[in-house]
Design a protein that fits this description.
Blueprint (H helix, E strand, L loop, with lengths): L15 H8 L5 E6 L26 H13 L2 E7 L7 H14 L3 E6 L12 H15 L3 E5 L5 H8 L4 H15 L4 E5 L32 H22 L3 E5 L40 H18 L4 E2 L3 H12 L15 E4 L6 E2 L32 H18 L1 H10 L1 H16 L11 H5 L9
Parallel strand pairs: 1-2, 1-8, 2-3, 3-4, 4-5, 5-6, 6-7
Antiparallel strand pairs: 8-9
The protein binds iron/sulfur cluster (2 copies).
């Protein structure tokens, strides 16, 4: 499961160089840096869980500092320190974040599985959280996520192997807010998203359900979609009750050992656990969904988000979901924007510090970033092999902006002929402005958010 959120780039910090990049058919660059693959959690959905035996690696600051300088010099606007568990290396990443900001990288992000919040009964808890807030803010981080898997604390804690963290998070949030830091809850969508109260998720092979391609029963898409509407409502209500102001959803990153079904699907369409350089994938049922299930799941999220946009800052752009639900559900495919992985977005692995197009195309080692010239990459975006929201969502959001420069007539035609897409994308852009790009260092503005309170739409 992905453990990091990718906010849209904040409108406040959009600058002339971004416009120049967009006019050249490029979008502001980002690099996801896997600083370490060490972890102290036991998540079933992830190959890096504690107890999984492989040789663990951590990058070194003396290696990474010049790489980050090269990123800044070559147009990278955003970097994320991910893991494993990044806060196991807090001092290192804090020092590197300071270097990155000093070099001109505008968005520096990290997050945690929440282990830090386990011992909330200890008398020094508040002081430790305050110190963490000061460290993150003082280093220039402007996005900070805390993973949350379920609307029920016990399911989340059992999956993570981190008892007590949810109460600790609830205690920590007011301390963060008082310091001017607004962490995001980061959901990796899974079958326990809605907790105990949501209708039970199906397991592939369960004869009572049929999303599994092996089942002979017809798939009840409406029932599955309804169960996930309930799940997302419960999850958003839960994070709000804990005190979060901001929330992100990571789309399912199930590893599949065979390509998905469908005549239109290329032979190499499956992301396999074997191929991924970023071991945040799994074939576990917890996050494994069929294509039909994904269509229903994305449609449910598309429907539920407007019910909460007036109260929470939600990263997830609905135009990206619209594209996904049409792709998996067989709707109109026009205007879909392929992923910018390997063109504007990159992944650095902890084992060697090498660059890859993303965490999943592990066969395409691009070497060190300092030897890379992203401006010279002429490959056209083509990849749709997974739904990694860190790369998927900004690719979709910036697509029409690039088209405005390079293919204005084609964009105008699409906006005229696809009213649902037009409304959805324009509202996403307005909402991103109202949310200040979901920046963790800007307090939410309830009055601006309230303008986005919407009745439930139909898909
Ligand atoms: S999902 Fe994150 S917290 Fe869980 S085992 Fe993987 S790296 Fe660790
Ligand atoms: S869609 Fe993007 S993140 Fe997924 S495999 Fe392709 S390049 Fe990588």
């Amino acid at each position: 499961m992905t453990t990091h959120a990718a906010p849209p780039f904040s409108s406040r910090r959009f600058c002339l160089s971004d416009l120049r990049r967009l006019a050249r058919g490029r979008i502001p660059g980002q690099v996801v840096i896997q600083y370490t693959d060490r972890c102290n959690a036991s998540c079933v959905q992830c190959g890096m869980r504690t107890g999984n035996r492989f040789t663990r690696s951590t990058l070194r600051p003396e290696f990474l500092a010049p790489q980050i300088e090269a990123m800044a010099a070559r147009g990278v606007a955003a970097i994320s320190f991910t893991g494993g568990e990044p806060l196991l290396c807090l001092d290192d990443i804090a020092a590197l974040a300071r270097r990155a900001r000093a070099a001109g990288i505008r968005y520096v992000r990290t997050g945690t599985n929440g282990f830090f919040f386990r011992d909330h009964e200890r008398p020094d808890f508040a002081a430790r959280v305050a110190h963490l807030a000061d460290t993150l803010l003082g280093s220039g981080f402007n996005a900070f996520w805390i993973s949350l898997d379920s609307a029920d604390a016990d399911l989340h804690e059992a999956n993570r192997g981190l008892p007590g963290v949810v109460r600790g998070i609830a205690k920590a949030l007011p301390i963060f807010h008082a310091h001017g830091l607004f962490p995001a809850a980061n959901l990796g969508i899974n079958r326990h998203t809605g907790g105990h109260g949501a209708p039970p998720p199906h397991a592939p092979g369960d004869p009572g359900q049929s999303g599994d391609p092996g089942s002979s029963l017809p798939f009840d898409a409406a029932a599955f979609q309804a169960s996930f509407r309930t799940a997302f409502r419960r999850f958003y209500t839960f994070v709000e009750s804990l005190g979060f102001t901001t929330v992100n959803a990571c789309y399912p990153m199930s590893a599949e050992e065979t390509p998905p079904d469908g005549d239109d699907v290329p032979e190499d369409a499956a992301i396999t656990a074997h191929e991924a350089v970023y071991a945040a994938t799994s074939a576990d049922d917890f996050i494994r969904f069929s294509r039909q299930e994904k269509a229903a799941l994305f449609a449910a999220l598309f429907e539920v988000i407007p019910e909460f946009r007036g109260r929470l800052r939600i990263f997830t752009p609905r135009s990206s979901l619209l594209s996904l639900l049409r792709r998996y559900g067989g709707g109109p495919q026009n205007g879909h924007y392929p992923c910018r992985g390997g063109i504007d977005f990159f992944f650095m692995d902890a084992a060697r510090g090498h660059i890859f197009p993303c965490g999943y195309r592990g066969g395409e080692d691009m070497g060190h970033f300092s030897d890379l010239n992203p401006s010279a990459i002429t490959t056209k975006p083509f990849c749709d092999r997974c739904d990694w929201e860190c790369f998927r969502d900004p690719s979709e959001m910036f697509g029409p902006v690039m088209d405005a420069f390079s293919r204005p007539l084609s964009l105008a035609k699409r906006l005229c002929t696809d009213a649902m897409y037009r409304r959805t994308w324009i509202e996403d852009m307005r909402y991103a402005l109202a949310c200040d790009g979901c920046s963790a260092v800007v307090a939410p503005n309830p009055a601006r958010l309230a303008r986005f309170a919407r009745p439930r739409p139909s898909v």
